[in-house]
Amino acid sequence: MTSAADQEQLRAQLDTLTTEAFRPELAEIDRLATLEIARVMNGEDAAVPAAVATQLPRIAAAIDGIAERMARGGRLVYAGAGTAGRLGVLDASECPPTFNTAPGQVVGLIAGGPAAMVTSAEGAEDSKELAAADLDALGVGPDDSVVGISASGRTPYAVGAVEHARRLGALTVGLSCNAGSALAAAAEHGIEVVVGPELLTGSTRLKAGTAQKLVLNMISTITMIKLGKTYGNLMVDVRASNEKLRARSRRIVSLATGAPDPQIEAALAASDGETKHAILAILGQVDAATAARLLSESDGHLRAALEAAQG
Fold it and tell me: For the chain, which has fewer Cβ within 10 Å, the N-terminal or C-terminal residue?
């Protein structure tokens, strides 16, 4: 239980945060018609990409560092509390089916553990020690990258994760939505997407959450492009785990090669459904075993493997 003095200090901190600012011009938004409220919200959301654009050089520098470490076997770890933590878990969970990442290669940590995804565990966000313990349980080290996520930029769990990861030698990124944040200061790469006060005072699942999602989309997607998980703009490492994805795999092979359906089906069958292998077999005019060897020798980069097959 926090003391009155602690509560007063926290309130003073919140009063300084852009994400917590009160907007008197919206004080009677509850009296507007539904369509008008929707227009106001849509106008608010339209400003988010521009705020993200101001941070693109910082985002790119962080991605280059992450990709470099992942290329030598490191992991990408997101750490946050509440909405920020859930967004990290969401992004991590989408990497295996989209990019065929190995189990544990991209990890989302949320304060309070998996149960906090669906049940509020807001008290857990106040513990730097919990964040350190969660990272230690993963065995985080110098080849790993840890991205702390916090709209306020002051959440102890996110700040503690970045501080501890940095002590362990990992690359660190601090993603927040306030300027001059403790989280950005603690990280090697500070990214501060200042989206301004929320429509509902302090409800950072709105613009701040949207901004964080956009940045996390960039971090995971561009990192995977750098790691050779795509061929052009095709998801050639997609894991065909259901009928929809199996159909998508066939379509990807078709778009990449222009081959007729029978040839595509034969190539996918020979490569156990591996989209990237099938494309290389068709374009490089090699068998499945050779395609697998060339991809292994090129660390999974299809363009490099194709050059080797054609050379």
Answer: N
Active site residue 297: no
Q: Tell me the per-residue pLDDT of 45-55, one tens digit each, with 9 for 90 and over.
A: 999 999 999 99
Q: What is the pLDDT of residues 178-189, one digit of tens each?
A: 999 999 999 999
Q: What confidence tens digit (pLDDT) does each residue in 35-75 have?
A: 999 999 999 999 999 999 999 999 999 999 999 999 999 99
DSSP lists the bridge partners of residue 147 as 78, 173
Tokens 């702390």 -> residue: 148
Is 94 considered catalytic here?
Answer: yes
**CA 44/CA 19 separation, integer angstroms:** 13
Per 3-state DSSP, the chain is made up of helix, strand and coil in percentages (nearest 5) of 60, 10, 30
Pick the closest to residue 62 from 217, 194, 191, 249 (CA basis): 191
**What is the spatial distance between Cα 239 and Cα 245, in angstroms, rounded to a whole number?**
7
Residue 121: Cβ-neighbour burial (10 angstroms; 0-12, 13-18, 19+): middle
Q: Is 196 within 8 Å of 163 (Cβ atoms)? A: no
Give the pairing of strands 189-192 and 106-110: unpaired
